[in-house]
Every structure is written in structure tokens, then in C-alpha cells.
Amino acid sequence: MREALFIKKNKDRWLNNQSAPPQSPDEMAKVFTQLVDDLAYAKTFYPTSKTVQYLNKQASDMYLSIYQNRKEESSRLVYYWKYELPLLIHKHRKSLLFSFVLFMTFFLLAFFVAVKDAELASNFFGNSYVEKTLENIKEGNPFGIYETGNPILSWLGIMINNIKVAFLSFTSGIFCGIPTMYLLAYNGAMLGIFDQLFVAHGFGVQFWLVVFVHGTLEITALIVAATAGFVLGKSFLFPGTKKRIDAFRDGAKDGVKIMIGILPAFVIAAFFEGLFTRLYNDIAWLTTFLTTASVLFVIWYFIIYPVQLVRKKKKGLEEGGALHA
């Protein structure tokens, strides 16, 4: 094939690749493959032609674009955890505070009701679970319930159940947030009753050191999941100056981002519960360390760090405004 005919046959496609580069990975791969084939053909039959130089540059530019996109995809996750999620948490801090207050209210309410009603624990957890726990307390191993079962199977079972509850809490936010409030209140009450069961037998401090090896991340994630549900419901009920559908779309987007952000917390919490909480007798320093580290992380990442980011952002904007002035 003559070079003029080769150029005429493919010129439109080459120009189109330049003016409107492919966006999807599949389309980009297809176009890049065709371009490499054209370059190989040109090198074979027109080795000294400017066509080879042109195709080589276009192929090089596309290769760099592909590489850059891959690099951006990996750095996108880092950006999400470092900036986007904390800023979302700060943006919806009032909903987060509401979730926390609601959870603690029912925790305290259930705790004090359980002091007066000894049957409340059995109603929540079942007679067999409570009887087994009381038996463990008498034997001097109050948290022996965490030593039962296969660690890996326990991890997977707990993780799946908690994620299911969290997504139910989020999606049910569309119903004015009422089911979300119920689930959050129920979990708060359950923790309060569970706590009182151990406090009544003199294991109040141990309860926090042992159960919160996994409980810190787990409960934090449940509260944040409820926050995502309230964000979803609030965006539909109170659209503000936006159209209701636009406000709901934005609320749903924020809620989904928050839910994706807390998934690792459920995975790690379940992993701790399945493999490390059971070690509270054998390696007490490890379980105490994990509880302390988890509490410090939650306080820093969900409270302190978002505020620092916002202040830093405001400071940057103010400095930028001063420079432009």
C-alpha cells in the first residue's frame, strides 16, 4: 500500500483520537492497540517517513495517558481517606452528633432500666446466652463467650452481619429516618444492657477493656452508618434552596461515600472480635493496647482531624484572598 493511501485510509481516525481521546478503559485499550498496529506497519514500509514520527508521538502520548490514569486511580483512594471522607464527616457533623446522642441516650436508659429489671437481659439476648455468661462469670472467666467458635468463621460471620445491619440503617433513612433511629436506639440499648450485666458482677472496667477491643470500631461504624441514613432522609425532607430531587441525589451521594468509608472499620472490628478479643486472658496487654489505640484513632479521625482539615482549608482560602488583594 502506498503511503498516501495508508494516510488517507486512517487519517480521520488518527485525528479523532487526538481531538476526542477515548475515555473508557476498554475503548482506550482498543484504540491504543490499533495505533500500535499502524505504527508497526508504518515502521515496516515507510521507516524514514514523517508518518512514523507522528504515530510514534501519538502512541507515546496515549501510553502516558493510560499510565497516568492508573496512577490517579491508586492515588484517588489515598485522597479519599485523607481528605474526602473527613471533610464529609465534618460537613454532616450535626447528623453525626445526633446519632451519637441518640445512641448514648438509649445506652444509658437501658443500662439503668436493666438495674431494676433482671429479666431485661434475657429478653434481649436470650436465656441460653445470659445463662452461659453468668456461668462464665462464676468460673472467673466473664468474657469466655468470646473464646468459643472458629476465629476465622467468627470473623466472617460477624463482619457480614454488621455490614448488613449498617446498610439497612443507611437505606432505611429514606423513610424519614425513623427505621434508622430504631436500629440505632436498639443497638444502644443492647450495649447498655450488656454492660450492666457485667457491672452488676463487678466487671465494669473489664467490660470496656475487653469488649471494646472490637467494640470501639464496630460501634463507631454503626453510629456513622446511622449518620449516613439521616443524611439521606434529611436531604429528601429538607431540600433547602435546592430542588428536592437534586438535594436527595446529593444526600444519597454523600451517604454512599460515607458508607464506603466505614466498610474497613467493620472488617477490622470483626477481625479483632474473632481473633484478638478472645486473648484478653492470655495477652491482656495486647487487648488493652488495641482498645486504647482504637479509641485514640476514632477521636482523632472522626473529631480532631476533620476540624484541622477545615481550618487548614479556610486558612489557605484567606491567604489566597490576601494575595489576590
From TrEMBL:
Its keywords, alphabetically, are: Membrane, Transmembrane, Transmembrane helix
Q: Which domain of life is it from?
A: Bacteria
Membrane-spanning parts: 96-115, 219-237, 258-277, 283-305
Q: Which InterPro entries has this protein been placed in?
A: SpoIIM-like (IPR002798)
Asked if Transmembrane helix is a keyword of the record, the answer is yes
Question: Keyword Transmembrane helix: yes or no?
Answer: yes
Q: What PANTHER family does the annotation carry?
A: SLR1478 PROTEIN
Q: What is this protein called?
A: Stage II sporulation protein M
Q: Which organism is it from?
A: Niabella ginsenosidivorans
Q: What is the lineage of its organism?
A: Bacteria, Pseudomonadati, Bacteroidota, Chitinophagia, Chitinophagales
